[in-house]
Amino acid sequence: MARTPGAGTRSPGGARGPGRGPDRGGRGRDGDRQARGEREESEFVEKLVSINRVAKVVKGGRRFGFAALVVVGDGKGRVGYGSGKAREVPEAIRKATEQARRGLVRVPLREGRTLHHDIVSTYGAGKVVVRAAPQGAGIIAGGPMRAIFEALGVKDVVAKSVGTSNPHNMIKATFEALTHLASPRAVAARRGKKVSDILGRRDGAEKEARE
User: Fold this and answer.
1) Which residue has better confidence, 32 or 48?
2) CA-based nearest residue to 147, from 42, 76, 48
3) How many CB atoms neighbour CB 45 within 10 A?
4) Which of 38, 129, 151, 172 is in the most buried spot, having the most CB atoms within 10 Å?
């Protein structure tokens, strides 16, 4: 007895039976969202600065958790930091990374490789000295400060932490310095002058030509 095609069969062309539309290709909304998340993750550089185990004393004993400190940047002049606490290390890192991405700040760079000028900044007991460096000097900094400059995209810089060695205070002092940096063009616009008037005729003309 021959079987007639019914409501649940598919035709050779890939279309469903009566009552159903044709098969849709692609991944759908979930697939697009996942692909967008992968592109955002590949765009940013994540640096894990420190993992600290913390303990809370409760009635039944001690409850352990973890605190993570993360620096995130796009390598093109934007950088941020965040901290997160959780019972497990991966969850603490995820929370810190999300907070860092929400707090990204843009830092003006000279020639895309170093800072425009030297600066000294403090935060609490932390004190940092950050200086611009000539081409080829590399990143001369240690610990959390190196992670910040690598995520920021700086290639030549000299930095020194003079105060505390607490990574939280070091990072906050470094960000305090970076947020107070200003490019010659921004200073000239604020004063109502030309870049050549700020840097001098020769240096200003070269700066405008580069920018």
Assistant:
1) 48
2) 48
3) 17
4) 151
Chain segment 21-35, per-residue pLDDT in tens? 555 544 555 555 555
Residue 69 has which token pair?
A: 């400190």
Q: In whole angstroms, what is the distance from residue 78 CA to residue 103 CA?
A: 10
DSSP SS3 for 46:
strand
Contacts of 62 (CB under 8 A, 6+ apart): 55, 56
Tell me the C-alpha distance between 51 and 164, whole Å: 18
More confident residue, 24 or 74: 74
In this prediction, residues 12-27 reach a mean pLDDT of 50
Between β-strands 157-161 and 139-140, what pairing exists: parallel, antiparallel or unpaired? Answer: parallel
Residues 6+ apart with CB under 8 A from 124: 164, 169, 172, 173
pLDDT higher than 80, residue 89: yes
The model's pLDDT over 93-103, given as tens digits with 9 standing for 90+, comes to 999 999 999 99
Note the pTM of the prediction, 2 decimals. 0.70
DSSP 69-113: EEEEE-SSSEEEEEEEEESSHHHHHHHHHHHHHHT-EE---BTTT
Which residue has 């002092």 as its token pair?
A: 173
| Cβ atoms 13, 5 nearer than 8 A | no
Which is nearest to 92 in space by CA: 131, 50, 133, 56? Answer: 50
